[in-house]
Hints:
The complex is a heterodimer of chains A (812) and B (222). Chain A is built from 27 helices and 23 strands. With 812 residues, chain A is α+β, with helices and mostly antiparallel strands. Chain B has one domain (2-221): Rossmann fold, CATH 3.40.50. The A-B interface holds A 1, 4, 7-8, 11-12, 15, 328, 331-332, 334-343, 345, 421-423, 426-427 and B 45, 49, 52, 54-55, 74-75, 78-79, 81-83, 87, 89, 93-98, 102, 105-107, 109-111, 154.
Amino acid sequence: MLRNYLKIALRNLNKYKTYSLINILGLSLGITCTILILLFVKDELSYDEHFENKDRIYRITREWKNTSGESSLHLARIAPPIAPLLKNDYPDLIEQITRVRADYNTLIKFDDNSSLVEDDFFWAEENFFEIFDHKFIYGDPANSLSEPNTAVLTESTSKKYFGDGDPVGKTFMYEGETPVKVTGVIEDLPSNTHFHFSALGSFKSLIPVFGKEFFTTNWGRNNYLTYVLLPENVNPEQLLQKFPPFLDKHLTARVLALGRELPERKPSEGTMLHLQKLTDIHLHSHLSSEVGTNGDIVNIYLFTGIAVFTLLIACINFMNLATARSAKRAREIGMRKVLGAVRKQLVYQFLGESFFITIVSLLISLLAVEAALKPFNSFIDKDLSFSFIGDPVIFFGLISLLVIVTLVAGSYPAFLLSGFKPTRALKSSDKIASGTSSLRKFLVVSQFTISTCLIICVGIVSEQIDFMKNKDLGFTKERIVLLPASGSMTSDINAFKSRVMQNPNVSNVSFSRLVPSNMLLNSWGARRVDGDNPGPVGFRLAVVEIDYDFFETYEMKLIAGRVQSQEFATDSAEAFVINEEAARRLEWWPPEEAVNRPLKYGNREGRVVGVVANNNFESLHNKISPQIYLIQHRVYNTSVKIAGTDIAGTLDYLKNIWQEYRPDYPFEYEFLDDRFDQLYKNEAKLGEVFSIFAILAVIIASLGLLGLASYTAEQKTKEIGIRKTLGASISSILFQFGNEFSRLIIIANIIAWPLAYIGMNYWLQTFAYSGGQSVIVFLLAGLLVAVICILTISYQAIKAAVINPINAIRYE
Amino acid sequence: MIELRNIEKYYKNKFVKTYVLRNINLKINEGEFISIMGPSGAGKSTLLYILGMLDTPSGGEYYFDEQPVHKMSERQLSEMHKSAIGFVFQQYHLIDELTVYENLETPLLYQKVKGNERKGMVAEILDKFNIVAKKDLFPNQLSGGQQQLVAVARAIISRPKLILADEPTGNLHSDQGKEIMDLLKALNDEGTTIIQVTHSEINAKYGNRIINLADGWIEETN
């Protein structure tokens, strides 16, 4: 019997080559997309799952609130005193707690005087490896971080520094000054962990650098990742409840110790601590000062949705072509029933056929995935691997995929056709086929609804990316070269600056702590000094430390007063420039009102000298925050504005001067506009991924339409012949053909537009500033689908329309 | 062998019942060769399908070998199809994707006849119908007469007691038609009960009894 089914299946495949090809090709494409997305989703869901203590590890984060209660900042890192104080206060609720400091661009020097810049040199307390289990290749996890000036390297860092072999006991110079001894080597970190370091220094090494007091009293430097391991029987709620009294106790004590006056609201009303489960960080945490780039659960939903839709479109093709052929199959079913088949046997037969096609498609997909994995990996910046047998998740995933596709794709003939009474199937098979035409229309409409939705999404995403790239940010971002600088240059900055300015192609140079595209994470306490309501301002006023040339370099627009100037000696310590938003929030409006107002900011007492127009200093994901600009003299970032056209020559010039002033550091520059583009990298990537899958979905849907059009043409041959003998013209027949499909496209658009609008609206809400959704995108998407549709069916339509009526009528 | 009591068949269309068969009472004995005749739309095919258990009557009772067919489940009916009844249609209804051999084999597969026995049975019937040379051809490679020959062969391969033929020669020219009718007659002579629907007076004469249907009523039997 099985052989009989298999024969029928194979012969059907062979006989209807176009249909079979469309089915197999469509399903293969759909399954390939699904597998790739499955791999991606599986990887995203696996972050930090490999740690043995994953269920008990939490990260402590810190949030600040304005007096109005709204959140003004939420950092992934917290102040250094919190960890030891918590452990001391609640020893029963905390098994281990560890602080990690992440440093970037660290200069490493070796005995032979060679040097390199290490990207991710982190520091951790000695119990780090008791919380996070890492496999040691050399050295002992127990005391690897217990001494100052020691470090554990990852395997590839060890190779980079010392070549092959055991490096334990060898030393290198940290920042060119401090000798650090290697105490261990661990296996390279897997890619699916939320933070990556290449070397981990012992936390004790930091104490002489910052001073012991810093780690016990400085509540303002929220720069320490803090992870807590809860005891087995403690749930996070228990610890969470302790945070407000903890903050009240210690922050109050701190204020009193500093001899300051206690604020009106309790410390815990202004700042709070949160716990994040380790395994939730990658997909659910989007705080300021994250340690790496996290994923987003929304993208997981989106991609899963895309996978389901592509697969659905492919399955619909299958069902559609099956229904189109149902007339023929119905007769076979009728006859088989007459010969004694029971329904169950017919269900098996048809499911068997769809299983056969599915498994062939699956095999093709496996090859396609193998071929596509490398480009896909480089595209999504991941290192996914695919092993069909070795990975139980993949294996069972694919098996269930096989079962689901078989059932969905084969459902129509298997469950509906098999239920027909033989007399009906034998006598009126043509009627069955026409009865399925409304089902077919429904299926085609669903396919085009999905395709149209995807195309609209592509359009809106790319519009938003354009909007972000081209929006007037309130400053110039073109032709600005950013150079990293450090404290070591502070003494030479004026000399450096004048050397740079000697080049006629350089129009301005500015030093600042932050440059646009950075996040404004720092703020000091701000107090009104005069007026009706002296006292602390109720919101966070973000600080931007700059030099006198900053505003000119960035061409920020002044709307009241003046900017800081070297002509006024007191400006360096007493002049503040605020932005429009700050002036409004301070209720110094119109902006002229703000000029000359006294203000206390941190430990500086001075006056507001000017107000600049609002600018999108941070990414467009963030709302414009109230900002204050003040003069500082330490160097962090150098912004060089290039005026001429000779960019390469200017860069060479900068490089030469740079190497004079910072010989150990490689000359690494960045253009500000590239940096802004980087901020929207995720969106750009999302847009590209969307386009690819949308194109695939449209291709699969068009394949199905092609099959359907050829079926319709075949079915209508007789009708067309009769019409032509009655005098119908070719164009009227084409029109009739097009009319049938264009109705479906219009319906698909009517359904797709609101769906896409709602979905995209939701997505656009993740931006503080969006370009909105333009009608053009919707119209173009509709038009595009219509054009693709017309192109797809036109061949069949023309072929049918030009047929000789005699042949057409004889067809039967 | 067959007894119909007050068999009715109607289709409900909104509130109107359209009768196809009315008050059919009929007894058919084993070994008979019955021809059902009547104008188009008289209900001939419907009666045949009811007799063949492919259609269910709207009312009345149907006994086959004294068993109540009107009370049988789908499974029991399919048992009857497998073992007791063979069908021959005007349009042959061979399965296009299967060869002659495979078409003949299909009913045996549903009856779960073992491989060797099955091969023997197919070989025997191929031989009997003189179509051994055609066994690997597909239906569309055969003439209409040859196709109908295969269809008859398929109908009798599992040695049913009853063969139902719906205008078996309707699509054939006269020589081929005669061949098929002779074949049916021969089968009847071997003891198989045959009921055919036909428009042809000549074909009707092959039978021993003619049932005339008009507007769903049996007019006369002779």
